[in-house]
Input
Amino acid sequence: MIYKVLFLFIAATSILCAQNENINAEHPIYDFLQKMKIRGIISDYDNSVIPLSKSRLKEYIKTIETRKELLFEKENEELELFSSYLTNLRFGDDKNQFNILKIEELLLRDENISLYSYFDGEFDLRINPVFSLRSIVVDKPGEITKNSLLIGYGGELILNYSDWLGIYLNATNGANIGDRETARLDRRVKQSFAFNYTNLDYFDNTEGYIQIKNKIAKLQVGRERVLWGSGNINRAFLDQTPQLFDFIKFDIKYNIFSLNFIHGWLVEKSDTFIQKPSLHEIRTKADKYFAISRFGIRPWENLNLGISQSVVYTQRPFELAYLNPFLLWESAQRSMNDLDNSFLGFDIKYNPVKGLEMYGTLLFDDINFDYFFNEKWNSNGNGNLWQAGLALSNPLLVRNMMLTIEYMQVRPFTFSHPGFQTGLAYTNNGAMLCSDIEPNSTLFSLQLEYQVTSRFKAILAYENYMHGKNIYDSGGNLINNIGGDVFESYSVFTDQRIKILSGDLEVENRYSIILRYYLSAKLHAEIMSRYFVHSNNSFQNKQMQIFSTIYYNTNFH
Output
């Protein structure tokens, strides 16, 4: 105990100064803070837009520490664990420190110890290796079992100056050993250009940013995973589905008010043509952009409200209007001849009693109030998404358990848009920006979590996904467009009224068991077993997927 206190004392100046970088949106600290909010331990936490900076997360942790007497034993152990995760530990007072020989500390300490670090009181630089090992096994009845082993390796650099500048860089490469289709079940591989278009068994990824901040505002330029939406399981605006994209991001949080803004540069699938007479292959890519903003307010401690606007536009340079979050973009795009795909959304989170959170989202695609009346709800131009959910924890459930129930419905043609082929679809490089749910679909999700120990979590999950697919002939030609494909918008030949889940109905039931164990601040392991039953009018497909993963990095990627 004395040893640990001494080391934390040595690291104290680093804790105070170097907190400008963001903590990855997939870090388990966000689940812990959400549980604390549902339990009524903290009230001002809102996960509608993450990631957050390390300094902001430490403020929440400090608030919880003042209320430790309200926590159960395992929750206090979790609190101590996450407090340690946010601590940058150094040995002695040397500015330059190489810890390559301290293997045990690098692997197993709960505090963050860097392979190399430099700290002089204001300037803080840390460099760390990144490593992952993932095994994927797919078993289908009547077929041979398929396997893939994914090896990822690279490094990260974190730089902080004083209390206002943060820089982050992460670069990784990876290799696949085994079946390529099985490897594509991994999100990193599925989104890799090198793996999918060069037929190499390698995949790479990079993310990074520079940001400046003060007590209430933050300006960021770069690329990293951003999750946006009120859902605790699925996000209605930005989720983990698409590949990372570059953006300018601006955030303000003051008292009960918040403002979040992103302008992003998306990737449109490239066109290929042969140049004559050289016969060289030429690839071109159209410009595509995405902007989103959200104004949030917390009028009471147990109520969070938000209004979001977003727009996808293409085939021209970026618009100054969409760099201004203090405009109504729906009106702005109409003043620019109505060329773009705009959205308006509302979200709510309400905690009526301790142990219960209710939340919802309503998103309109090219809002038209005329569709709400005169029996026009099923009009093909009435694109909208709605989501409702609730999360339960103690005292309404047993200790260390949380139950989340969620339902999402996406009407036909939502997220698609006439014109410019796929350029105005709500996608990045062919993948949905929001959760992986097509138009003309419903998704019911149930998730039960149990904190076995402070380091070990078990999750049981079930999803029922129903999708009304467009109708095609045996040659793959479109016969009837009922709004089930984000890349096929409506036209003058489309039926004027289409009910939800019309078309070729596909049903998929998904069952998952996830076991997570956090060995230290950098080393963690996960085993996930998923069972799928996919069926439509003509066939049924069953398969088992098992993911076994070991990660070594400071940011839980």
Notes: Confidence is low (pLDDT under 50) at residues 1-17.
